Amino acid sequence: MAKQQRPDPRLSHQTLRVLKVFLDGPKEGLAGSDIWRALGLFTGTVYPILLRLEGAGWLRGDWEKLPPSELGRPRKRIYQLTPTGYNKARAALATLDVQVGSPSWKY
Amino acid sequence: MEILISIFIGIALMELYAWLDPIAEWLVYRVAKGLPEDRRADFTEQFIADLATLPNSVAKVYFAFRDCTLATQNIYQCIYRETFLSMADNFDSVYNKLSLFDQSIETSKARARSEFRLSSAFISAVDRSLEGLRRNQRQDDPDAETAIHHFQALSLPVVGVLSTIIESFEQRHARLAGLIDRLREPLAKAFEANQKLRSRMLNDEPLDDNAVEMSTSFTETLCEITAIINEFKADSFDDLPSIPKFPENFGTKAKAIVEALEAAVRVVKRPT
């Protein structure tokens, strides 16, 4: 049976910040460490958010293709916005812009 | 002596420092044991990858000890929340289906009553007519007996089918309504628990014993509902009376019955 996807994840302040990093980030995606470092958050905050977004189908996580021996470091799990996630993240942030003005972390 | 102690401490510190990276990794594996088994390998590898991005060994140990511990707890709670939210969604879907089922039972009952009115009227008209014919039938009147018998022969099979249809429908309805009645109380209880649980799971505060207690109570009620449905399926589902088809050419048959009744009335009432 296909895994049931929850319709929409909760969009907490931190979740929106994570989505913003993805929207502004490179197309090839980001690893968990890129996100917690960019936002100055704990891994304990970032990973549950990534888990929820992935569960909702907004993000897709893939392990780096090359083995650690070739990379010279442990391989990372790279997260990317799915087309649904991209559209929904943009819509959520646009709504937030309309409601409260630009998010403070832009500055 | 002081020089020796300094050298010794220096060597010990260097040795300890060399051990910090493996200690950090060991800590990550140790901490990740607190994660659900199906997610453990994934997150352990991600933590190890994160560890490798840190600038020095002390930071790695600190990260493994503090950040990974927090992350493990939060991920565990997140999975727990998502599992229960998914269960709450499934319950909502089942609840809506059962509510629709309840409504459709009531609607079909009302519709059937309206549709069966004609059949019931037909059955009681046949009964009353037969009773009237028998009451007015003279003794030793073979023509009347033949006419009544003809009316009876035509009407009884149709009456039989109509009665069976009504009876089967009412039996089916009673059993299904009985199931809904049994489910009503646990469903209401689960609905209320589901609302509370959902709002608790959506609240980002760490889950405590109270939340676990709510989840346990909710799952117990779900088990109760499942048991009632399974019991119904085992006892009654295959055993529900099938509803026979409405008599074919009912209009033609009814017309023939009416004609036979009119003929019987004429024969019974004819002057001697």
Q: If classified by CATH, what would the architecture of chain A be? A: Orthogonal Bundle
- What is the arithmetic mean of pLDDT of chain B? 87
Count of helical regions of chain B: 6
What is the element string of chain A, with H for helices and E for strands? HEHHEHEH
Spans of chain B with pLDDT under 50 lasting ≥5 residues? none
How far do the termini of chain A sit from each other? 45 Å
Average of pLDDT of chain A:
84
The main sheet of chain A comes to:
3 strands, antiparallel
Counting helices, strands and paired strands, the structural category of chain B is mainly alpha
Low-confidence runs of chain A: none
Radius of gyration of chain A, CA atoms, in whole angstroms: 15 Å
The number of helical runs of chain A is 5
Q: State which percent range the strand residues of chain A make up.
A: 5-15%
CATH fold-level label of chain A: Arc Repressor Mutant, subunit A
Percent of residues in β-strands of chain B: under 5%
What would you note in describing this structure?
The complex is a heterodimer of chains A (107) and B (272). Helices cover 51% and strands 11% of the residues of chain A. The model of chain A has no long low-confidence stretch (mean pLDDT 84). Chain A is mostly helical and 107 residues long. In chain A, helix 1 packs across helix 5 (83-100). In chain A, strands 1-3-2 form a 3-stranded antiparallel β-sheet. Chain A has a single domain (13-98), classed as Winged helix-like DNA-binding domain superfamily/Winged helix DNA-binding domain (Arc Repressor Mutant, subunit A, Orthogonal Bundle). The N and C termini of chain A lie far apart (45 Å). Chain B has 272 residues and is mainly α. Chain B has 2 domains: 2-73, no CATH class; 80-269. Chain B has 6 helices and no strands. In chain B, helix 1 packs antiparallel against helix 2, helix 4 (142-202) runs antiparallel to helix 5 (209-237) and helix 4 (142-202) packs antiparallel against helix 6. The radius of gyration of chain B is 39 Å and the shape is rod-shaped. The termini of chain B are far apart. The mean pLDDT of chain B is 87.
